[in-house]
Amino acid sequence: MKVDTEFLSALKLGGEFDARLCINCGTCTALCPLGVELMPRRLFRYALLGHREGVLGEAETIFSCLLCRLCEANCPAGIHIAENVRTLRTVVNRDVYGLAEA
Amino acid sequence: MPVPIKSTLGMLGDNLRKRKSALPLRRRAVTGWTHGLNIPRGGETVLYTGQMWQMVPAIDAMSRQLAKYEGRSSARLFSVARSMNKVLNLTPFLARTSARERAAFDERLRNIAKLLAAAQVPFGYLYEDDLYAGGLAHDEGLDDAFRVQAQRVADALRRHGVRRVITVDPHTTNMLRSVYPTVVPGFDVQVKSYLEVLAERRLRATTKLGETATFHDSCVYARYEGVLEEPRSLLKEGGVTVLEPEMSGKLTFCCGGPLESLFPGKSAEIAKRRVGQLSAVSKRVVTACPLCLANLKRVAPADVTIQDVSDYLVKAYCPAPVPT
After folding, report:
1. Which of B116, B188, B253, B261 has the smallest number of CB atoms closer than 10 Å to its CB?
2. Do A69 and B262 touch (CB under 8 A)?
3. Closest approach of chain A CAs to the CA of B32, in angstroms?
4. Phi, psi (5° rounding) for residue B317?
């Protein structure tokens, strides 16, 4: 696995990405209406490690989040999970899909 | 496999930048609901629809089209469609809607205008400047296109001297109240949902409906905006016994609507689960969001009736016109 420091910087600039507070308890996954398909813990760990390929390889997962905040309402660490997923979407749109404003 | 994400989101961003809407509608489709209501243009307080109710029939039609391509290798087809859409607005061709469908959704806006009038709340309307608020672009992470649209909306409100906005759906409420202040410098318009405005006025029902129904909380009203008690208290005053489903209030379960564009199949699965939870309590279901209404109705069995909260409230609070 390669740590991409530029990717880390981009995420830091992407808003209130507070996934470092995650205690890896799995409450989010257990409650998610999409079940085990969506795993914020794994996505966020990749992001925090600067594992660019890991995050970008999960593009479909990132876009399948409902942003419904059921996980967030029960997160013991109070993480802004939906906003973090949204931040990852902005990165995928820019770095994978080339959808940033020209 | 979802529908091709890149081209679908690309079309959304292109539409928003070029045509000021996720699914650009003809002007008459946006403002036609006001016919005969004599709502004044502009004013310090306006009813702001953000085109959400008007757009839902097109979203519904588009979702049905997209579902045909889920799981199929269609990236090239979508790429061509995106290129064509840059030149010609494809929405009227890809999202064909019937006059009956449009009229049904417009009726909810008319309900809301009548309810505000019954509560003696003075309000105007921006007509052609009632722009889409950009919620879908925000949620999908198309931040550049979203910021442009948010600024357009803020400019329109400023141009008309608007100080207070009354919204009609959770998504526009969330955008204007909680997101715009973070992306539009100096945005200080007061934003309230019509449900909050009506609840504050402590309206008395003119008719007690004597009905029973289960209430589906929208995720955005319940967990983003804290609108929980208002629809319940209005329904109860109107003589509706409100039953709570398995997951309700702050712990409500999503209708699946947010996935209808990219993952129509998953969206339908989640909607079916939610309809099951709701109909286990009552076969009559009340929603408070146009997207929840459309998504749940699409999968509901024939014996389950799903209606918007305004359908109930208008019967309870707005006296029927006397026949002449």
Report:
1. B188
2. no
3. 32
4. -110, -20
Q: Is this prediction's ipTM beyond 0.85?
A: yes
Domain B203-317 classification at class level: alpha beta
Query: What does the domain layout of chain A look like in residue ranges?
Result: 5-95
Instruction: Please state the domain extents for chain B.
Output: 5-198, 203-317
CB-based contact A63 B5, cutoff 8 Å: yes
Confidence of residue A74 (pLDDT cuts 50, 70, 90): very high
- Buried b / exposed e along B268-294 (16+ C-beta atoms within 10 A): bbbbebbbebbbebbbbbbbbbbbbbb
Q: Chain A residues contacting B, CB < 8 Å?
A: 33-34, 59-60, 63-64, 66-70, 72-74, 86-93, 96-101
Tokens standing for residue B23: 């699914």
Mean pLDDT of A63-70: 96
Report pLDDT for B116. 97
Query: Which member of B223, B254, B262 has the closest CB to residue A63?
Result: B262
| Residues within 8 A of A (CB atoms), B 93-152 only | 138-145, 148
Each residue's pLDDT tens digit, B39-97? 999 999 999 999 999 999 998 888 888 878 777 777 788 888 888 888 888 888 888 88
Nearest chain B Cα distance for residue A54, angstroms: 18
Instruction: Provide, as residue numbers in chain B, all residues whose Cβ is less than 8 Å from the Cβ of A99.
Output: 6, 9-10, 13, 142
Is residue A75 helix, strand or coil?
coil
